[in-house]
Write a structure and sequence with these properties.
Order of helices and strands: EHHEEEHEEHEHHEHEHEHHEHH
Structural class: alpha/beta
Organism: Caproicibacter fermentans
Distance between the termini: 25 Å
GO molecular function: carboxy-lyase activity; hydrolase activity
Strand content: 5-15%
CATH superfamily: Metal-dependent hydrolases
CATH class: Alpha Beta
Mean pLDDT: 93
Radius of gyration: 18 Å
Low-confidence stretches: 285-297
Number of domains: 1
Helix content: 25-40%
Largest sheet: 6 strands, parallel
Protein name: Amidohydrolase
Number of strands: 11
InterPro entries: ACMSD (IPR032465), Amidohydro-rel (IPR006680), Metal_Hydrolase (IPR032466)
CATH topology: TIM Barrel
Number of helices: 12
CATH architecture: Alpha-Beta Barrel
Keywords: Hydrolase, Lyase
């Protein structure tokens, strides 16, 4: 089982019927050389590396750009077409006056499983009071939040909003809120590691922006940016497989991670178990580690 926890469905064929909308997506995401793909092509690529499910992430830029990159209704529709394959997330622009209502509808009526926010793109600091009602609702509904963190190559994304330390007050104030700071907060990998050691409710993922080949980048991440045993010993249940598609190809990432030395329990956590825990909140003890993992002994 392999779950990709970070996919932007901007080119999924069934939601690519409007040329103006597609152009907005390309410009917002900074990807201009790709185009729509049908499910047959998508799932053929999944089969190369064994992906069984993927989290689909929309983005609401209502007040900053005047449009959604992908909206909650579109994610709901995609999940309805392939409910066994797609895990739908919601998004909301925190500056909207109806932000809480949008999120509540996404969870209670549309069946979406979590929330995606991008502070750099949506222009808010994570600890801004404007986002507090949203965090409280996610806690009440037992839904996780994925934040963009670290560098973004997308246009108009000031990095100041996404430094990993900008999230610490949120983690302190909301200890029961499961939070993923995506992209390993690169280049602040050690700060990200520190947060995972300190806060069992914070996760990250492998959707780094490559500055080397995938093989070189993953080996650098797991054996040099961090000590080679940090993942297994310190936060074995807090890192999830994620590709950041369509910017990067999942099968190349999987091939690279297969070459990184780690024990079987850690690899299984990375590829699927951690995602299941993040989504459900089940299976972790008070220290953030599963009862049956060697690292919890």
């Amino acid at each position: 089982m392999l779950i990709d926890m970070h996919v932007h469905p901007i080119f999924y064929g069934p939601i690519c019927n409007d040329d103006a909308e597609l152009e907005n997506r390309k410009n917002a995401f900074g990807v201009w050389k790709q185009g729509p793909m049908d499910f047959e092509e998508l799932f053929a690529e999944w089969d190369i590396c064994g992906i069984t499910q993927a989290a689909l992430l929309p983005l609401d830029l209502t007040t900053t750009a005047g449009f959604w990159v992908v909206d909650n209704d579109q994610v709901e529709a995609l999940c309805g077409m392939n409910p066994d394959k797609f895990i739908g997330f919601a998004s909301v622009d925190p500056h909207r006056s109806d932000a809480v209502d949008v999120v509540r509808k996404a969870f209670e009526e549309q069946g979406l499983q979590g929330l995606k926010l991008n502070p750099a793109k949506q222009k808010f600091y994570p600890n801004d009071p404007v986002a507090e009602p949203i965090y409280r609702l996610c806690e009440q509904e037992n839904k996780p939040v994925i934040f963009h963190s670290g560098l973004s190559w997308e246009p108009n994304t000031p990095t100041k909003y996404c430094h990993p330390m900008a999230f610490e007050e949120v983690l302190i104030k909301h200890p029961n809120l499961r939070v993923c700071l995506a992209h390993f907060a690169w280049p602040w990998v050690r700060e990200m590691a520190m947060l995972m050691i300190k806060y069992p409710n914070v996760y990250t993922d492998t959707s780094l922006l490559y500055v080397d080949s995938p093989e070189e980048q993953m080996m650098e991440l797991f054996t040099k940016d961090m000590g080679p045993m940090w993942f297994e010993r310190c936060f074995p249940e807090q890192v999830m497989f994620a590709s950041n598609g369509p910017r990067f190809r999942a099968f190349k990432l999987k091939r690279a991670l297969d070459k990184v030395p780690m024990r079987d329990f850690a690899r299984e956590n990375l590829y699927c178990k951690n995602a299941l825990r993040f989504l459900s909140g089940k299976g972790c003890n008070r220290n953030g580690r599963g009862q049956n993992d060697p690292a919890s002994e």
